[in-house]
Amino acid sequence: LPHWGLDLPLAPVTWAGSGEISETAMYAGDDLVLKAYRDESAARLAIALADALDAQGIPAAKAVSLPDGALMLPIAGVQMTLCRRVKGTPLEAAELIRHPEEGLRIGAALANLHKATAALDASWADDEPWAEHILNWALPRVQGILPEDYLTDFAARVEALRELPSALIHRDPNPSN
What's the rounded Cα separation, in Å, for the pair 62 and 12? Predict the structure, then answer.
């Protein structure tokens, strides 16, 4: 924080749903989040995504500039950013079921999110090896539990899905998600 000219208390980021503590982010005061990224491309992705969201009027964790104008700080083998904190609470599925009229608002927000990401160059996306996770990690764990013919059919469907265009999977408007 001194690199940004700030002296604020740090507090752990704790995920509301699981109670897990983030290994890559800390709250800095009430309005900022200090984040660590594995490399420069991951930090640039977070910055670009936040800028694209902000351009669509979506609250986003925009990076705070260092005194020299840079948006990230290379330190101890990681890239650090300081971002504005997005205020609010996660949308729980149960809440959406209790208030289905919120679906329209949520749908409009997702449409704006898709517009924001469509404006980005496709090269920013982090290509997650989801098929390998499913085939090499998840499927072996359910062998012997689910019928073998089901697993064979499921694996064939996963292989077929590899041919589809890339898709953005989003959880919330914070960088790296």
Answer: 19
